[in-house]
Amino acid sequence: MNRAVKYGTAIVLVHLLVNIAHAAAHLKLHIELGLAAMLFVMVVIVLLPLIAMLVLWTSRERLGVILLALSMSASLIFGLYNHFVAAGPDHVGEQATGTWGTTFVLTAYLLLVTEAIGTYVGFHFLYRKMTAWTGICSSTDGLKWLPSETPTSHSATIHFGRDLVHIQPFSSVVAYQYPG
């Protein structure tokens, strides 16, 4: 399992658990959201990160990273505005003391943290995936760029010491050879 899948899955599951506790605090404190906000929460904050996590486990990992980055960044902006900027019943400063008020405030901060981490993880691995091909080819760490001997004009063979890796852009590694 690669790091994008591992970290993406971990942050989505933690985010989901914090959302469940935060939703319970909303219910106990009778803090209701409007229809548009409720749809945003259900689709963007809850459903899209779960879809992103599932897609990370498929061959469409890059799409999963994109969904993770976008859903977490949108969630971060939504939560930051509603819990810390806009005055109203959803603001952390408006909560009564007690178990559920404390739960609401604590989970609002935890959502902020998990969404910031999720945004970072998503954009970090998206950036790595976008630069992976050029990063491999431009590294000066003992790599040698060899012209491709295949008919595909956009492919290349890279020499890592004694290891040869044949690469085609926008696809996975298609051949690996360890010559003895």
Would you write up a description of this structure?
With 180 residues, this protein is α+β, with helices and mostly antiparallel strands. It folds into two domains: 135 residues; 39 residues, no CATH class. 63% of the residues lie in helices and 9% in strands. It contains four helices and four strands, in the order ααααββββ. A four-stranded antiparallel sheet has the order 1-2-3-4, covered by helices on one side. α2 packs antiparallel against α3 and α3 runs antiparallel to α4. The chain starts with a helix and ends with a strand. The C terminus is likely disordered.
**Number of alpha- plus pi-helical segments:** 4
Q: What sort of overall outline do the alpha carbons produce when their principal axes are compared?
A: elongated
Percent helix: 55-70%
Radius of gyration: 22 Å
Q: Work out the count of structural domains.
A: 2
**Main sheet strand line-up:** 1-2-3-4
The number of distinct β-strands equals 4
Distance between the termini: 27 Å
Helix and strand sequence: HHHHEEEE
Largest sheet: 4 strands, antiparallel
Uncertain runs: 133-153, 171-180
In round numbers, the mean pLDDT is: 82
Q: What class would the helix/strand composition place it in?
A: alpha+beta
Percentage of residues in strands: 5-15%
